Amino acid sequence: METRAATPSLEQYLREHIPLSAAMEVSVVSARPDGVTLSAPLAPNLNHRSTAFGGSVNALATLAGWSIVHLRVRGSGHVARTVIQEGSTSYLRPIHAAFEATVLPIEEDRWERFLRMLVKKGRARIDIPVRVTSAGEEVATFRGRFVVLMGEG
Amino acid sequence: METRAATPSLEQYLREHIPLSAAMEVSVVSARPDGVTLSAPLAPNLNHRSTAFGGSVNALATLAGWSIVHLRVRGSGHVARTVIQEGSTSYLRPIHAAFEATVLPIEEDRWERFLRMLVKKGRARIDIPVRVTSAGEEVATFRGRFVVLMGEG
After folding, report:
1. Residue A38: helix, strand or coil by DSSP?
2. B8 close to A (CB below 8 A)
3. For the purposes of burial, counting CB atoms within 10 Å of the CB of A79, is it exposed (0-12), middle (13-18) or buried (19 or more)?
4. What is the distance between the alpha carbons of residues B69 and B36, in angstroms, rounded to a whole number?
5. Could you tell me if B107 and B117 are in contact, meaning their C-beta atoms sit under 8 angstroms apart?
6. What burial class does residue B74 get, using C-beta atoms within 10 Å of its C-beta: 0-12 exposed, 13-18 middle, 19+ buried?
7. ipTM for the complex?
8. Number of domains present in the structure of chain A
9. Tens-binned pLDDT, residue by residue, of chain B (153 aa)
């Protein structure tokens, strides 16, 4: 039920506030505080080799990482701003079809420490691992460090 | 003169072959085998905070890195394919205006070793450092590892 509630609103939010996500035709496959998967079709994200452009792959993974931190923080009742501090992508193989970015499981302990730090210091950071797949195969991995600052919506 | 010759064709090439670069409104400020600067306006690259989206920043830097490798290899008379293997971006501060990605100087020795390896092995890789600036200030740094494979245009 949470998925149904969160999915359209996150997709609408991304497309309205981040024009590149509309240009990439990003859709939200699932969006819950314990897991986010975003998807993008190949056509608007092509490169010169008719495979997916690395910039699009990284952008989809960045949006997935941002989304789960945003949903976690909002789900905890906090008003805060989430920004990316660092992001690294390994491109494993050419992508010939639509691709999906899925946030990998993060231990509840880590979320709890992160939220405690946020409340205590007004600022906390967390590393989010993301796997990108296409046609059932792992095609890229991403790791993003996100910083959350309290009180800035 | 090389700049004049290379600039329009690279911009046209990027926009025609990589739709996201058109959506981002990427323009080529300069494009020579010894230096590439690409620029993007803020509007199509906004995030939810009305600053530049990290995915756009990384994508512009990726395109700058790809472009210099492409120009170097082509300028050496080789027919080869350039792909990104890894990319890392550090986001230093919010970006409130148009932003530029400039490839940092790379020693001629490194280019020579890279091209020798490409001829010898049919495959070579090189790390390309890129600085992103906006309104005269450094706003992000990027490092990309590109792999070039001979004979695939």
Report:
1. strand
2. no
3. exposed
4. 10
5. no
6. middle
7. 0.94
8. 1
9. 344 444 558 999 999 999 999 999 999 999 998 899 999 999 999 998 999 999 999 999 999 999 999 999 999 999 999 999 999 999 999 999 999 999 999 999 999 999 999 999 999 999 999 999 999 999 999 999 999 999 865
Q: With contacts defined as CB-CB under 8 Å, which chain A residues touch B84? A: 54, 91
User: In this complex, which of B13, B46, B59 lies closest to A18 when CB atoms are compared?
Assistant: B46
Q: Do A55 and B59 touch (CB under 8 A)?
A: yes
CB contact under 8 A, A59 and B62: no
Model's pTM, two decimal places? 0.94
SS3 call for B126: strand
- B54 in contact with A, Cβ within 8 Å: yes
B43 touches chain A (CB under 8 A): yes
Q: Where are the beta strands (DSSP E) in A35-109?
A: 35-40, 80-91, 99-103
- Residue A109: give the domain boundaries: 2-150
Q: How far apart are CA B68 and CA A123, in angstroms?
A: 39
Query: Which residues on chain B are in Cβ contact (under 8 Å) with A41?
Result: none
In angstroms, the separation between the Cα of residue A44 and the nearest Cα of chain B is 6
Q: What is the dihedral of CA A132, A133, A138, A142, to 10 degrees?
A: 0
Residues on chain A touching B48 (C-beta within 8 angstroms) = 13, 17-18
Residues in chain A: 153
